[in-house]
């Protein structure tokens, strides 16, 4: 078998040489192209699979091109990048494609890539104090710069601490004339201490009261001031400096401080003392709009509600002349008249409300002070703002409540019904004015008996029916107005 292979391999070159010596035949007549010459035939290695390799004519095995040379290293495919140990992806698993080029939000930076992100991340919003570009939008971003690289250390804002009484007194060095100190920098303790030591110094007392009012606008300072006895200190200052035109501003500052202290019931407060102090101040300065405004606000804050304590404060205020002081405040005119009238109307409401046995006496004293005529003029005045007319109608409801026939006849005599008709017609779009106006007319015409019939006839002649019909027609969708008007 081996001999036949060698014989076939040896005969193949001779056949090829013989074929090359035959000239190519051209078919000129048929116009055919010349036939291609026969090429050397190289047997496919697949045909001789499993057979020994064929040898050349000399019987020697073929030589490789790099025979005798050392083997050359083959090119290797670079390995896939792997994440560092302890990173977000871990192991040898390649990380996902970067999302920075797709506009998505990058993952939180690791410790190894922090400086790269600092220099290359976009958008770069500025340079920090260490000289690095930083991307402030990265979640959880934090850069740590050695201290020797920071040219300008970061300044931490100093915490403003409230000075104690001793330090405030030493730093301010306020004398008897109120000289060199700055009360606006004092804390609660220092202000109260200086207020108690002020004595007859009016200027220093006024400064302390003004500072106390500013401090008590916050809940924490107000609670602290009440705990330290601010009520008694302010009341004593008002008592000491009451009287004279030169103390009007001081009294106004004291009433404003009591107003801030009485804004919310707190343990340790003294609302009874505040009520008496502001009423006496309003009586002492009847033309001072600031005193009247702060006094009325303090009154209705202290007398709000129907609890036993609130009723006692109402009786205490009426005993000291609060009804007359509030009515006088309603008659004042000035730049802040609207706010004053609103606060005075609220004070009169809370003084006259209540179904207790003393409630009728409080309402009777308000009528005796001229409250009905004053409220009627407030409702009639077309120049009043709507909120003032609303509060005046509510005050009329409070004064006209009850079944005292004499007081109700006095209200009809004060022409309250015509005033309500004009006020309701002028504020037709206000639901509150229509509702409480109808309620006032209902209170004036309620009851049975000849006296009640006489009151209803007077009210009808004064235009009560027209006022009620106007309210019904203008507020058909308001259940409150419909109920009051019926």
UniProtKB/TrEMBL annotation:
Keywords: Repeat. Residues 83-92, 160-175 have a biased composition (Low complexity). It comes from the Eukaryota. Transmembrane segments: none annotated. SUPFAM superfamilies: ARM repeat. Residues 1-112, 160-185 are annotated as: Disordered. Residues 62-82 have a biased composition (Pro residues). InterPro entries: ARM-like, ARM-type_fold, Armadillo. PANTHER family: ARMADILLO REPEAT-CONTAINING PROTEIN 6. This is RING-type E3 ubiquitin transferase. It comes from Haptolina brevifila.
């Amino acid at each position: 078998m081996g001999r036949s292979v060698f014989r076939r391999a040896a005969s193949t070159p001779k056949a090829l040489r013989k074929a090359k010596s035959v000239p190519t035949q051209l078919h000129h007549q048929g116009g055919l192209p010349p036939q291609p010459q026969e090429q050397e035939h190289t047997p496919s290695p697949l045909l001789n699979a499993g057979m020994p390799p064929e040898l050349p004519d000399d019987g020697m095995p073929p030589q490789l091109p790099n025979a005798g040379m050392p083997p050359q290293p083959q090119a290797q495919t670079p390995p896939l990048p792997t994440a560092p140990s302890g990173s977000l992806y871990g192991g040898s698993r390649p990380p996902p494609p970067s999302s920075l080029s797709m506009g998505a939000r990058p993952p939180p930076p690791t410790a190894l890539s922090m400086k790269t992100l600092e220099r290359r991340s976009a958008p770069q919003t500025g340079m920090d104090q260490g000289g690095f570009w930083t991307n402030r939008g990265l979640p959880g971003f934090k850069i740590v710069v050695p201290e020797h690289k920071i040219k300008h250390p970061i300044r931490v804002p100093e915490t403003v601490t409230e000075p104690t009484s001793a330090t405030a007194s030493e730093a301010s060095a306020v004398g008897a004339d109120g000289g060199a100190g700055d009360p606006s920098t004092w804390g609660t303790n220092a202000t109260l201490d200086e207020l108690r030591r002020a004595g007859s110094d009016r200027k220093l007392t006024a400064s302390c009261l003004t500072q106390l009012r500013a401090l008590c606008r916050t809940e924490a300072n107000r609670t602290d001031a009440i705990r330290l006895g601010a009520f008694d200190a302010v009341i004593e200052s008002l008592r000491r400096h009451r009287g004279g035109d030169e103390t009007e501003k001081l009294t106004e500052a004291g009433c404003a401080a009591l107003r801030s202290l009485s804004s919310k019931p707190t343990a340790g407060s003294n609302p009874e003392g505040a009520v008496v102090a502001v009423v006496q101040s309003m009586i002492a300065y009847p033309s001072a709009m600031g005193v009247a405004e702060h006094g009325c606000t303090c009154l209705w804050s202290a007398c709000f509600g129907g609890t036993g304590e609130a009723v006692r404060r109402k009786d205490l205020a009426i005993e000291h002349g609060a009804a007359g002081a509030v009515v006088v405040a309603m008659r004042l005119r000035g730049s802040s008249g609207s706010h004053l009238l609103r606060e005075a109307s609220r004070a009169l409401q809370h003084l006259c409300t209540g179904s207790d046995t003393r409630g009728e006496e409080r309402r009777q004293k308000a009528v005796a002070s001229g409250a009905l005529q004053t409220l009627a003029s407030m409702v009639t005045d077309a120049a009043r703002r709507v909120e003032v007319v609303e509060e005046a109608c509510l005050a009329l409801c409070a004064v006209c409540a009850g079944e005292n026939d004499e007081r109700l006849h006095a209200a009809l005599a004060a022409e309250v019904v015509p005033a309500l008709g004009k006020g309701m017609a002028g504020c037709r779009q206000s639901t509150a004015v229509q509702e409480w106006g109808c309620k006032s007319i209902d209170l004036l015409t309620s009851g049975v008996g000849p006296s009640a019939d006489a009151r209803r006839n007077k009210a009808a002649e004064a235009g009560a029916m027209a006022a009620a019909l106007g309210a019904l027609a203008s507020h058909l969708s308001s259940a409150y107005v419909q109920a009051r008007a019926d």
